[in-house]
Design goal:
This protein has 2 helices and no strands. With about 55 residues, it is mainly α. The protein has one domain. It is elongated and about 45 Å long. The two termini are about 20 Å apart.
Length: about 55
């Protein structure tokens, strides 16, 4: 399998920016925020897995 470079920091920034935008609208969708939180959790798991593969 070919090694790919994933920019976890940029993905994290995008997720955080999206969450802030949704919350800033005042009419925040609980479902959308929950999906973004789940995405953040999955990103953290992917980062941990990626780091474990390096060591």
């Amino acid at each position: 399998m070919k090694h790919s470079t994933i920019d976890f920091h940029k993905i994290s920034q995008a997720l955080n920016g999206t969450m802030e935008a949704i919350q800033g609208e005042g009419d925040s969708s609980a479902e959308a925020l929950e999906s973004l939180r789940n995405a953040q959790d999955e990103l953290q798991q992917a980062l941990s897995f990626s780091m474990s593969r390096i060591n």
